Amino acid sequence: MNKLTKKELANLESTFTRIQKNIENGIKKLNITPAIRVAKVWKRDQGGGGKSISITGDTIEKAAVNYSSISGKKLPDSSIAAKNKSTSSKFHAMGVSAIAHPMNPFCPTSHMNVRIFLELGKNNNIENWWIGGGFDLTPFFPTKEESSIWH
Question: 49 lies in a domain?
Answer without folding.
Answer: yes
